[in-house]
Amino acid sequence: MNLTPKQLRVLDYVRSYRQSHGCSPTMQEIADELGVSKVTVFEHVGALVEKGALTREANKARSLSVVDEDDSGLAFPLVGRIAAGRPIEKCETREELHLGEIFGPRLGRNGEMFALQVEGESMRDEGIFDGDYVIVEKRSTARNGERVVALLPDGETTLKTFFREADGTIRLQPANPEFEPIIVRDCRVQGVVIGVMRRY
Questions:
Q1: Rounded distance, CA 167 to CA 188, Å?
Q2: Residue 175: alpha-carbon gap to chain centroid
Q3: Residue 130 domain-assigned (yes or no)
Q4: What is the largest CA-CA distance in the chain?
Q5: How far is CA 112 from CA 59, 92, 180, in A?
Q6: How many angstroms from the chain centroid is the CA of residue 135?
Q7: What pTM value is reported for the model?
Q8: Does 184 score more than 60 pLDDT?
């Protein structure tokens, strides 16, 4: 299913709202949450219904439902473990790997997630490469050592490891010796990386 980032935000919000409230949000609640007009929400919801991601009943409030909601999102059969060091004994399992359980809402998280595609090699030594996708939890604060999406004073955004120094400055540390740390007095944390996905 090919969804735009804004459509994905609407879908994620409807899913997380239903999980926490037991009913669907209204169009106005979605608009307020996303900071857009109600008309824009109607357009996104209409597109999501057309694409088969949402269903709704005409002229009925709180009638949005996420298709395959009980499926917890995309899942793959988890058939065992594979050695990347010493070989291990083969042991087949009958489990499933649910991406929604790994990257979705959980205790202590606000449930708002988004994805970004990485450009550049500044986080290479952390295993984050050009072309990878990072899954980001939307947050405005970070602890030392967390990988963050930071909005710099000049309006640019960057993916780096966050450190607040003793002198009050913030060091945004790359994971590649070819890049210098970014030292700023202030920056806006937009989210914290919780996972990396790569397609070959």
A1: 18
A2: 21
A3: yes
A4: 61
A5: 28, 35, 31
A6: 4
A7: 0.56
A8: yes
